[in-house]
Write a structure and sequence with these properties.
The complex is a heterodimer of chains A (about 500) and B (about 110). With about 500 residues, chain A is an alpha/beta fold. Chain A contains 16 helices and 16 strands. Chain A has a ten-stranded mixed beta sheet with strand order 12-11-10-9-8-7-13-14-15-16. A three-stranded antiparallel beta sheet of chain A has the order 5-1-6. Chain A starts with 9 loop residues before the first strand and ends with a helix. Classes of the chains: A alpha/beta (about 500), B mainly alpha (about 110).
Chain lengths: ~500, ~110
């Protein structure tokens, strides 16, 4: 018997998110990002402890009529081992702030071959009121020269690991097709000389897809992402030419021609959602079934909150409802081994499967960098040309002090608001550019979409749980793809 | 693990980590690097007596060993429960060789 005043060791819940899928209960542990399925005893212990912290004896007593004490004891020990529960008196371990070792290999370089565009999409972050760099009257060249592009290739091959990815970007990328074309040839030749592999992709608005350009992209196995917002009236709302005319009728036939000819890589569409165009299912149907895209990814427009096309809290709720519908459709197709092209969910499932727990929201400033038309290296393509977000130049290389400072300042440990959020292993505070536009600094987490991120992550976890039960082989593909990629190295 | 099933890759790694046992010095080497610690390797004086059979002539006081055993060793020394009952037991003993007399007895509260 315990004497009065003795403190009893009390068990309490640690950080996790519990979810239900395929008739079973799962835990997503934070910050490890491990996913465990619970049996009935474990589920009961979690429930008892979620009512209030209790001693081990009290847990045994509460469950005595349902489960034998040895089973409950062994559950308690297992849950403690994986840190789903712990002693209330014992402080939770503080997550250490590990900065990545530098030099960190550069895996993707985004080359802004021009900052000019033949469209004038009214929501564009590069030209609208939220722009960071003045591309009309600023000091940066409007087009990247061949010399700068070659220097960028040398920079990438010097900083990369065995495989280097090069993404051409703009403005409208194809406005500088001559430099793009010569750079592909040059990069191939130089990569072969130094014994590395280089892979290419680009983003375009599709207005300039001429037959000879399509041939070039197909023959060179260049990955293509088309920025497009959906059916005619949605596309024409924001994606307009300088005279205000909509671009749908120009781009639709060109996209069809591209999809017919370019079979060497899957081609995806990237949709910008605004308050006026949240119609995810309809956009998805149009782009996959009527135009023939293999994949479609959606992203809410990046803007300050006072723009009228900015997505409000209610808009985020609506968007989440529609994402959930499409996610369910994805789940049912994939469960029976059929393709579904909703790329947002596929990317998140892969992160859940691997158990990614991020110190940084994305690879910007680490494995990914953007290069401006003048050869300045920035955190990512969205900051290309900005002096405040510069990490060096392709000529002189990466400024390691600036990079170190960036990594020091943007670590998840310093985003206090995120420390109580269970979705932080996947979100880590969200896009730097979005934060810059919203709050004027890349260092702040994007608190305006926390609810949306948690809602969407919960959906992805449920789909993950369903697929883990109904089609585990689909998830094992992520392992196989990774093994294949490593075999190349 | 019988009640929890690892579903993703990280969960499998967590289980791998928690199920790893202590490794004794005479066991065959484990799969991953193992750095043995403890008095048998580090020439700590251990629980010794001096040439007279007492402890007064040791180069370091025996109380100093307590830290070697209960902090760095897999063979824990009997010390007060610093988690619950006596969190500040060593608070006055910053340097064991100098301050060891300040380590006091702890009585159940």
């Amino acid at each position: 018997m315990r004497t009065e005043g003795t403190r009893v060791i009390v068990l309490g819940l640690r950080e996790f998110h519990q979810f239900h899928a395929a008739g079973r209960q799962f835990l997503y542990l934070v910050p490890s990002a491990a996913v465990f399925e619970l049996d009935l005893v474990a589920e009961a212990v979690i429930r008892v402890l979620s009512e209030a912290p209790r001693s081990e004896d009290a847990v045994l007593e509460a469950l005595a009529d349902r489960f034998p004490p040895p089973a409950v004891r062994s559950v308690i020990s297992e849950l403690r081992d994986v840190r789903a529960i712990g002693h209330q008196q014992q402080a939770e371990l503080k997550e250490p702030k590990f900065l990545p070792m530098v030099p960190f290999p550069l895996s993707t370089m985004v080359l802004n071959v021009t900052n000019q565009c033949n469209l004038a999409c009214t929501y564009c972050y590069e030209y609208g009121e939220d722009k960071i760099v003045d591309t009309e009257n600023g000091k940066q060249s409007k087009f990247m020269s061949e010399a700068t592009a070659r220097q960028s290739v040398e920079f990438l091959l010097k900083e990369s690991g065995q495989i280097a990815h090069m993404t051409f970007f703009g403005g409208e990328t194809l406005l500088n097709f001559p430099v793009l074309k010569s750079t592909v040839a040059y990069a191939r030749q130089r990569a072969a000389e130094v014994g590395k592999t280089v892979d290419f992709s680009l983003t375009t608005n599709a207005t300039l897809l001429q037959p000879e350009i399509i041939d070039f992209l197909a023959d060179n196995e260049i990955g293509v992402t088309i920025s497009m917002d959906g059916p005619r009236e949605l596309q024409n709302k924001f994606r307009v030419f300088h005279n205000g005319a909509g671009s749908y009728d120009i781009v639709a036939p060109k996209i069809k021609a591209l999809l017919q000819r370019h079979r060497s890589r899957p081609i995806g569409a990237r949709v910008t959602l605004t308050s006026d165009t949240i119609d995810v299912t309809r956009i998805y149907r149009h782009l996959t079934e009527e135009l023939g895209f293999w994949e479609v990814g959606f992203a809410p427009v990046t803007t300050s909150p006072d723009q009228k096309y900015a997505i409000s809290d209610r808009g985020f709720d609506r968007m989440l409802g529609q994402f959930n519908e499409l996610a369910h459709e994805f789940q049912e197709q994939v469960a029976v081994n059929k393709h579904h092209g909703f790329s947002n969910i596929k990317d998140t499932l892969e992160e859940i499967h691997k158990g990614v727990s991020k110190a940084y929201p994305c690879g910007a400033g680490l494995g990914l960098m953007g290069v401006s038309t003048d050869g300045d290296v920035a955190v990512c393509h969205r900051f290309a040309g900005s002096d405040h977000h510069k990490l060096g130049t392709v000529k002189d290389g990466i400024d390691r002090t600036a990079q170190q400072e960036f990594l020091e300042q943007h670590h998840i440990n310093d985003k206090t608001d995120c420390h109580t959020c269970w979705a932080r292993p996947i979100c880590a505070g969200g896009c730097y550019h979005e934060a810059h536009v919203r709050y004027g600094t890349t260092r702040r987490p994007n608190l305006h979409y926390c609810e949306w991120i948690r809602g969407w992550t919960d959906t992805c976890l449920q789909v993950y749980g369903e697929l883990a039960v109904r089609n585990p082989d689909f998830l094992a593909r992520f392992d196989r793809d990774e093994a294949k990629a490593e075999a190349v190295l | 693990m019988t009640h929890l099933k690892a579903v993703n890759r990280k969960a499998a790694r967590v289980i791998d980590e928690v199920q790893r046992d202590v490794v004794a010095l005479q066991q065959p080497p484990p799969a991953r690097p193992h750095f043995p610690l403890g008095c048998s390797l580090a020439f700590s004086p251990g629980w010794e007596a001096d040439s007279t059979g007492g402890t007064a002539g040791l180069c370091q006081p025996v109380e100093r060993d307590i830290f070697d055993c209960h902090l760095g060793c897999f063979w824990p020394a009997h010390v007060p429960d610093q988690l619950n009952h006596a969190p500040s037991w060593t608070a006055k003993c910053a340097a064991a060789q100098k301050d060891w007399r300040k380590l006091d007895l702890v009585f159940p509260g």
